[in-house]
Automatic annotation (TrEMBL):
Species of the source: Pukyongiella litopenaei
The DUF6538 domain, residue ranges: 7-65
Protein name in the entry: DUF6538 domain-containing protein
InterPro entries in alphabetical order: DUF6538 (IPR046668)
Domain of life: Bacteria
Pfam family, one: DUF6538
Amino acid sequence: MATIPRLVTRGRTFYFRASVPQDLWDAAGRKEVKISLRTAERSLALMRCRTISNHVDLVVTEARRMVQGQDTAIDQAIRDYFREALDWGQEFADIFAPEAEVDVEDCIATLETRLALLRRRLAVRFCAKTCSSCWTRLGTIPAPSGIGPCC
Protein backbone atom coordinates (compact mmCIF):
# COMPACT_ATOMS: atom_id res chain seq x y z
CA MET A 1 0.00 0.00 0.00
CA ALA A 2 1.15 3.50 -0.85
CA THR A 3 1.42 6.00 1.97
CA ILE A 4 -0.94 8.95 1.81
CA PRO A 5 0.40 12.30 3.06
CA ARG A 6 -1.22 13.48 6.29
CA LEU A 7 -3.02 10.16 6.89
CA VAL A 8 -1.83 8.16 9.89
CA THR A 9 -3.22 5.28 11.89
CA ARG A 10 -3.25 4.80 15.59
CA GLY A 11 -4.44 1.38 16.49
CA ARG A 12 -7.36 0.80 14.14
CA THR A 13 -8.47 4.45 13.86
CA PHE A 14 -7.27 6.77 11.10
CA TYR A 15 -6.17 10.31 11.86
CA PHE A 16 -5.40 13.40 9.83
CA ARG A 17 -2.08 14.91 10.86
CA ALA A 18 -0.40 18.00 9.39
CA SER A 19 2.29 20.34 10.60
CA VAL A 20 1.54 24.04 10.92
CA PRO A 21 4.00 26.20 8.96
CA GLN A 22 6.56 27.79 11.25
CA ASP A 23 5.56 31.35 10.32
CA LEU A 24 2.04 30.63 11.67
CA TRP A 25 2.99 28.94 14.94
CA ASP A 26 2.22 32.06 16.99
CA ALA A 27 -1.08 32.72 15.24
CA ALA A 28 -2.21 29.07 15.41
CA GLY A 29 -0.92 28.46 18.92
CA ARG A 30 0.33 25.01 17.93
CA LYS A 31 2.87 23.30 15.73
CA GLU A 32 0.66 20.54 14.38
CA VAL A 33 -2.97 19.70 13.65
CA LYS A 34 -4.35 16.25 14.57
CA ILE A 35 -7.93 15.28 13.82
CA SER A 36 -9.57 11.89 14.28
CA LEU A 37 -11.25 10.70 11.08
CA ARG A 38 -13.47 8.38 13.21
CA THR A 39 -13.18 5.42 10.95
CA ALA A 40 -11.25 2.19 10.58
CA GLU A 41 -12.01 1.91 6.85
CA ARG A 42 -9.11 3.01 4.69
CA SER A 43 -11.23 4.20 1.71
CA LEU A 44 -13.46 6.38 3.90
CA ALA A 45 -10.42 7.68 5.79
CA LEU A 46 -8.76 8.59 2.48
CA MET A 47 -11.78 10.65 1.34
CA ARG A 48 -12.03 12.43 4.69
CA CYS A 49 -8.28 13.04 4.76
CA ARG A 50 -8.31 14.68 1.30
CA THR A 51 -11.27 16.88 2.23
CA ILE A 52 -9.70 18.02 5.50
CA SER A 53 -6.32 18.47 3.81
CA ASN A 54 -7.85 20.82 1.22
CA HIS A 55 -9.58 22.81 3.97
CA VAL A 56 -6.39 23.04 6.01
CA ASP A 57 -4.47 24.29 2.97
CA LEU A 58 -7.12 26.98 2.40
CA VAL A 59 -7.00 27.98 6.07
CA VAL A 60 -3.18 28.23 5.98
CA THR A 61 -3.33 30.39 2.84
CA GLU A 62 -5.99 32.65 4.39
CA ALA A 63 -4.06 32.88 7.68
CA ARG A 64 -0.91 33.97 5.86
CA ARG A 65 -2.90 36.56 3.94
CA MET A 66 -4.46 37.84 7.17
CA VAL A 67 -1.10 38.09 8.94
CA GLN A 68 0.37 39.99 5.99
CA GLY A 69 -2.79 42.11 5.84
CA GLN A 70 -2.44 43.03 9.50
CA ASP A 71 1.17 44.06 8.98
CA THR A 72 0.16 46.07 5.93
CA ALA A 73 -2.73 47.70 7.79
CA ILE A 74 -0.50 48.62 10.73
CA ASP A 75 2.16 50.03 8.39
CA GLN A 76 -0.48 52.07 6.55
CA ALA A 77 -1.94 53.38 9.82
CA ILE A 78 1.53 54.50 10.95
CA ARG A 79 2.20 56.17 7.59
CA ASP A 80 -1.18 57.95 7.70
CA TYR A 81 -0.54 59.19 11.24
CA PHE A 82 2.85 60.68 10.40
CA ARG A 83 1.62 62.10 7.09
CA GLU A 84 -1.20 63.86 8.94
CA ALA A 85 1.23 65.12 11.60
CA LEU A 86 3.59 66.45 8.94
CA ASP A 87 0.73 68.10 7.07
CA TRP A 88 -0.45 69.75 10.28
CA GLY A 89 3.11 70.89 11.05
CA GLN A 90 3.47 72.36 7.57
CA GLU A 91 0.09 74.09 7.88
CA PHE A 92 1.15 75.51 11.25
CA ALA A 93 4.43 76.74 9.77
CA ASP A 94 2.63 78.28 6.80
CA ILE A 95 0.17 80.15 9.02
CA PHE A 96 2.49 81.33 11.78
CA ALA A 97 5.85 81.70 10.06
CA PRO A 98 6.94 85.31 9.64
CA GLU A 99 6.62 86.52 6.09
CA ALA A 100 9.58 88.19 4.41
CA GLU A 101 7.76 91.51 3.82
CA VAL A 102 6.61 91.81 7.47
CA ASP A 103 8.85 94.05 9.55
CA VAL A 104 9.00 92.25 12.88
CA GLU A 105 10.72 95.16 14.66
CA ASP A 106 7.95 97.53 13.56
CA CYS A 107 5.30 95.09 14.83
CA ILE A 108 7.06 94.89 18.20
CA ALA A 109 7.28 98.69 18.46
CA THR A 110 3.56 99.03 17.65
CA LEU A 111 2.64 96.45 20.28
CA GLU A 112 4.80 98.17 22.90
CA THR A 113 3.12 101.51 22.12
CA ARG A 114 -0.35 99.95 22.44
CA LEU A 115 0.67 98.23 25.69
CA ALA A 116 1.84 101.55 27.19
CA LEU A 117 -1.44 103.22 26.20
CA LEU A 118 -3.50 100.41 27.74
CA ARG A 119 -1.42 100.55 30.93
CA ARG A 120 -2.20 104.25 31.30
CA ARG A 121 -5.92 103.61 30.83
CA LEU A 122 -5.88 100.85 33.45
CA ALA A 123 -4.03 103.02 35.93
CA VAL A 124 -6.56 105.85 35.56
CA ARG A 125 -9.41 103.44 36.34
CA PHE A 126 -7.88 102.37 39.68
CA CYS A 127 -7.13 105.80 41.08
CA ALA A 128 -7.00 109.43 40.07
CA LYS A 129 -3.22 109.36 39.76
CA THR A 130 -1.06 106.50 38.52
CA CYS A 131 0.88 104.91 41.33
CA SER A 132 2.89 101.78 42.00
CA SER A 133 0.22 100.38 44.36
CA CYS A 134 -2.23 100.29 41.42
CA TRP A 135 0.27 98.40 39.35
CA THR A 136 0.74 95.97 42.21
CA ARG A 137 -3.01 95.31 42.16
CA LEU A 138 -2.77 94.49 38.46
CA GLY A 139 -0.41 91.64 39.29
CA THR A 140 1.64 90.42 36.37
CA ILE A 141 1.75 93.67 34.43
CA PRO A 142 4.94 95.50 35.44
CA ALA A 143 4.66 99.19 36.30
CA PRO A 144 6.15 101.60 33.80
CA SER A 145 9.10 103.65 35.06
CA GLY A 146 8.54 107.05 36.64
CA ILE A 147 5.36 106.24 38.52
CA GLY A 148 5.44 107.24 42.13
CA PRO A 149 3.18 106.35 45.07
CA CYS A 150 0.03 108.42 45.38
CA CYS A 151 -2.16 106.48 47.76
